[in-house]
Amino acid sequence: MPLLELDDIHFGYPGHAPVLRGASLRLEPGQRLSITGANGSGKSTLLHLMVGLLRPVSGRVLAFGQERRQEADFHEVRRRAGLVFQDPDDQLFCPTVAEDVAFGPMNLGKNRAEALAIVDAVLDRLGLSHLRERVTYKLSGGEKRLVTLATVLAMEPEVLLLDEPTNALDEANAARLIAILQALPQAMVLVSHDAALRAQLAPRALRLSGGCLRDETP
Fold it and tell me: Could you give the number of structural domains in the chain?
């Protein structure tokens, strides 16, 4: 059974030409897909549709064996599929790193002690313990990117949706992030312009062009 499936998705932003014109994909358990395409082709839009931040004009969104239509349908999806946004500032909103990472677990019903234990475990795993009490908005772009991944992993998702994850990272931090992602067990959908990253992390390639997805795996 696919973890996520988009079936003949059509979508357009108000006042603009359609972005997606029959896009379809299937993410199987353990699979890692990369999505390429020109700027503005709809790559981020696809990820947002998967977790219900946007709704298609037509077509079906299926997640974890069920069709998802209404907002309530996507609450479970957002617990099980973690989206790492292209811009970390869209995802980080608490005063400190620890509070940002604890937010998701507490939202899932963990008490404060349980949530903080998860914070310590995730930050240690990612080598970010030194940032625990830092003020989030004062972090560098690269630090924010890594903390954003920590906030998603704290939810223990089954699927990772990664939107240009090495954006704003220097070479050392990009290499570090890639090593972290390679070691994770989750299925992934990766949006990236970085061919080397795609080859290392998600070599099964789909190209979004003309509103449709085409297999470009060598």
Answer: 1
- pLDDT, tens only, 117-145: 999 999 998 989 999 999 998 998 888 99
With contact defined as beta carbons under 8 Å apart, do 167 and 86 qualify?
Answer: yes
Range of the domain at 200: 4-215
Question: Which residue in the block uniquely carries the two structure tokens 């625990």?
Answer: 132
CATH number (domain holding residue 198): 3.40.50.300
Taking only the tens place, the pLDDT of each residue in 42-91 is 999 999 999 999 999 999 999 999 999 999 999 999 999 999 998 988 89
Which distant-in-sequence residues (6+ apart) come within 8 Å of 207 by Cβ? 35, 36, 37, 213, 214, 216
Query: What's the predicted TM-score (pTM) here?
Result: 0.93
